[in-house]
Structures are given as structure tokens and as C-alpha cells.
Amino acid sequence: MPPARSIAALLLLCLARIGPAHSFAPPQKVPITRNHRAARRSTLLAAGSGGEDNNKFSFFQRIESTKTALLGLVSGGILSTPFIALHDIPAYGAASWEFDTDMGSLQSALFAIVYRYCVREEDDNEMLNQGVVGAFVVTRTLSRVRVPSYCTAAPLECGDPLGYFDWDMIQQLVLNGLESVALFGGAALAMEYAYGKKWISKFPN
Asked: Which residue in 88, 90, 104, 166 could disulfide with 97, CB within 3.0 to 4.6 Å?
């Protein structure tokens, strides 16, 4: 038998064994069981919960953070300006006052963003609010103290009344503390007022 006829005979034999119904039948649908439905429901629920987490950092939250930064920038800068002037102009001049006011406004903007992330929805704890403000006040106050040139090092000795702190440094602590309280405390009050007016939303838990 020629090779072409042999190949044709083999193909006919295979088709006869498979049958036309099997060779051209559409694929059968797999029945959906309860286990399949339960697995699909669990997947959807997991995806939903992940979506809620992503909503915390959505475009809307970015807009709220931008509004928060602008509010902190303006409120903190305005409220702290007279206290910074009281400290800087007599000792360092108007240029130093302008620079410190500008830098303080930027610090207040960053503080407002941190305040919003710390004091969240359903948080009704005055100690938490005061703790956030106090941490920024203490950090800024201590970092702005300038050690006089007449102090000696290792160990630090500056004179009366405390040795480590003399009267000049204590005065700096008081004045810088007043600036920082006005700067960050004012921004916190502005944030709470904006929360009450629904101008800015609290960050979700």
C-alpha cells in the first residue's frame, strides 16, 4: 500500500474511534459547587479590605494633606510672628526675624500633617493631642538654644545659676519656648477648628 494511502487509512481509523460527537462537541461547563462560591466570596472580601487600606492613601487623602499643610503654614506663621520678632529683632536684627518666621512656617506645615496622622477619627484623647504638640515644642525649643562663646567644654560650664545653663541660655529657652508654643499650639488649634467646620477631614483609623 502506498504511503499516502496508509496515512489516510490511519486518520480515518482515528476519527472512527473518536467519533464525530466527541471531535466536534463544545467543551462541557464545570459545575460550580459551594466550595467554589465560598472561595470566590473570600477572595472578594479580601480584595475589599485591601481596598479600604488603599483608600487611606488615595488621591482624596493627598488633597486633605495638602490643605492641612497650607493651614499649618499660615496659622503657625501668623501666630508665632510677634513672638519671634520679640526675640530676634533686638538680638539678631530684622533679617533673622524674617528667616526664622519663614522656617517656622514650614515647620508648622509639617507639624500639621503629622498632627492629622496622629490624631485620627474617633480619637478623643486630650493627652494625645497635647503630647503631639509638646513633642514638637520641646524639640524646637532645645534645638534653638545657642551656647555663648564664653562657655567652656567637657564638661560644659557657662556660669550662674546652673553651670550648664546660665541666665542667657535660660532666657533663650523661655523665648524659644513661647515661640514654639505659639507656632505649634496655634496650628493645632487651627486644625481642631477646621475639623469642627468640616473643612478638613480627620485621617481614618
From this structure: 88
